[in-house]
């Protein structure tokens, strides 16, 4: 009798595990839109004090991607790249609001019909 083949129990699990990692988690798009792209906050992020723990001593930072770079050359080449351009395109769209999320879930007031018993029917007198 030959060896039985292993059942593939971890089929398609790689993407699930990869998506749930928190080690390389960056800021969400709405956080960047509402907080970081504000001109006052943006200036503070671009002119950060020297930090020995961050790449490039925290001197080369892309606000749109929320990412530190080692050198100015690396930052400039990142600005020309496809990843940065896609991120900027997504950030131009307005952020979702709580009201919009509630409307999508069916909790909003727009488009909701009132029951027939609650409607006032005009009568001719």
**Taking strands numbered 1, 2, ... along the chain, how are they ordered across the largest sheet?**
1-2
| CA gyration radius, whole angstroms | 25 Å
Order of helices and strands: HHHEEHHH
Largest sheet report: 2 strands, antiparallel
User: How many DSSP helices?
Assistant: 6
Helix content: 25-40%
Uncertain regions: pLDDT < 50 for 5+ in a row? none
Relative strand content = under 5%
Q: Return the structural class.
A: mainly alpha
Termini separation comes to: 95 Å
Overall shape: it is flat
**How would you state the average pLDDT, rounded?**
82
Briefly summarize what is shown:
39% of the residues lie in helices and 3% in strands. The chain is built from six helices and two strands, in the order H-H-H-E-E-H-H-H. A hairpin with a 4-residue loop joins strand 1 and strand 2.
Write a concise keyword list for the protein shown above.
single chain; 125 residues; mainly alpha; two-stranded antiparallel ribbon; 6 helices; 39% helix; 3% strand; flat; ribonucleoprotein complex binding; zinc ion binding; Znf_C2H2_sf
């Amino acid at each position: 009798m030959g060896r039985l083949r292993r059942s593939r129990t971890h089929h398609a699990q790689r993407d699930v595990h990869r998506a749930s990692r928190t080690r390389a988690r960056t800021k969400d798009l709405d956080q960047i839109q509402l907080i970081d792209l504000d001109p006052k906050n943006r200036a503070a992020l671009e002119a950060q004090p020297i930090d020995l723990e961050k790449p490039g001593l925290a001197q080369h930072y892309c606000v749109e991607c929320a990412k530190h770079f080692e050198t100015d050359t690396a930052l400039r080449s990142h600005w020309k790249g496809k990843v940065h351009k896609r991120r900027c395109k997504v950030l131009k769209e307005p952020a979702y609001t709580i009201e919009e999320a509630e409307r999508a879930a069916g909790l909003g007031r727009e488009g909701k019909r009132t029951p027939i018993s609650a409607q006032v029917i005009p009568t001719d007198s």
